[in-house]
Amino acid sequence: AQKVTQAQTEISVVEKEDVTLDCVYETRDTTYYLFWYKQPPSGELVFLIRRNSFDEQNEISGRYSWNFQKSTSSFNFTITASQVVDSAVYFCALSFYGGATNKLIFGTGTLLAVQP
Amino acid sequence: EPEVTQTPSHQVTQMGQEVILRCVPISNHLYFYWYRQILGQKVEFLVSFYNNEISEKSEIFDDQFSVERPDGSNFTLKIRSTKLEDSAMYFCASSNVFLNTEAFFGQGTRLTVV
Question: A75 and chain B: CB distance < 8 Å anywhere?
Fold first, then answer.
């Protein structure tokens, strides 16, 4: 079965704190892709990152970083020095290489509230 | 930057009425999708469309739903007879499947069935 679990339903931090959003996935496929999307209060889905299963290098983009560990089937997302504008729901998602449609399977999301 | 455009942004309809949600995918993309998000819940796959036919659909996508690409640019989702439980945000997405790139999402259409 393919599944994405985001165990943290809500996280509240104070501005400038670092915060890590957890994502654990399940799949039998050896080739797959992992994604993070941000959904701000306005409702749209904003793509943040895509990683393929062969690339376990961690990635940093400004205040954002991602830690992909196949051994624990996790793809965690860290925001450094959080800001109020980071307040949103964050979704982790999984898709499969060579599948019929490359549909995305989403986790339930983590609501991040950054307090000033 | 190219983007996926959805119209309308919000639609209110009476139960039992037909609705058509419209999307203009990114022009060089090959795969088109509809996803649904009931308020406060996760985003769920409804259907994917490639080469003018449905390539995959979920259990949610029953006979009340249909999709169409009528003119080579628009991609529509029709709900034939809406139910209260169809109230949700509907997202259209498109992707270039051969590169297995990320799906680009539209801003969503909030459907409210009353």
Answer: no
